[in-house]
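In this notebook, the sequence line spells out the residues, with the fold written below as integer tokens. This is how one looks.
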Amino acid sequence: MKYALIGCGRVSPNHIQAAINNELEIAALCDIVAEAMSKLTESFGLDAAVQYTDYKLMLKKEHPDIVAIATESGRHAAIALDCIEAGCNVIIEKPIALSVADADAVIRAGREKNVRVCVSQQNRFNRSIQYIRKAVEAGRVGRLLHGTATVRWNRGREYYSQLPWRGTWAEDGGCLMNQCLHNIDLLLWMMGDEVEEVTAYTDRLTHPYIEAEDFGMAMLKFKNGAYGLIEGSVNVYPKNLEESLCLFGEKGSVKAGGKSVNVIEEWNFADGLDDPGQVKKLYAENPPDIYGFGHTPLYADMIKAIQEGRQPYIDAEAGKRAVELILAIYRSAAEGRPVRLPLKEGSTRDYIGRFD
């Protein structure tokens, strides 16, 4: 299949490596910064890939089967809609969009054009997460009581000054939308997806040079009667401390941790079907960065979804659910009240000037 990448920044090497691992034909690269494309070309030996600074021209000339979108978050939806209109299947870096309306538009366009839309919430493919998911689906945890998603990281002025869109309401959002979305997605997925109500606080505590939040906490009530807790911060001194996901049920307790929840740290089940020590030993991957190893299996699934005419494992609806919850958290924090889901509307732009 013919493949093209739009956006050659920080996460782009993971996409290129996944495309190579899945034997896609890398036909084109696109970025408004030529140096970014040249760097990728040199790193991966992509001499055959045509370089473009205009993605619409690229779509017109190359007609790729799959396009991956890894630009600034605020442009994901608009670029995805253009790719879908051109008949391309798309892999969208998280988040799918920064508003409910834009997420809905991408979902609707994908259905109308009968193309596959996948959102790169790749931590679902972690070996640790897949093993936990199997236990949940098998009922080993029993009735889920509550779960927690924790991201205790550090991001300083250097990180935000690298790219002007980071930390802005129009193009990014804050730590919940950027750094915490993967783990929020996992919590939603494990706990049954349907949140009934959220109560939250967000703040900008130590980053006066960004617009959005650097800290957020939320309590969730799921429709199935379970509860959830979200803690996200980029204020942890002096460096990243942990990212963890915990599930607590009547018959089991699980904790995944590590750089990108690649490690099973706790494994306790009433059924005694496996040895906790052995499980923790087997599921202790050590990825080189926070992106983990999930892009390659995500790409493999997307290729099979296209071939088999089915939806990808992580579809556009999953992408919307994570964004919708974060937007509900923003609304609850800004208005000082519980917010019920689903949201009829909402955008990160609604909070421009909130912390000024």
Q: What stands out?
A: The mean pLDDT is 97. The two ends are 48 Å apart (CA to CA). The chain has eleven helices and 14 strands. The domain at 124-290+320-351 is CATH 3.30.360.10 (Dihydrodipicolinate Reductase; domain 2).
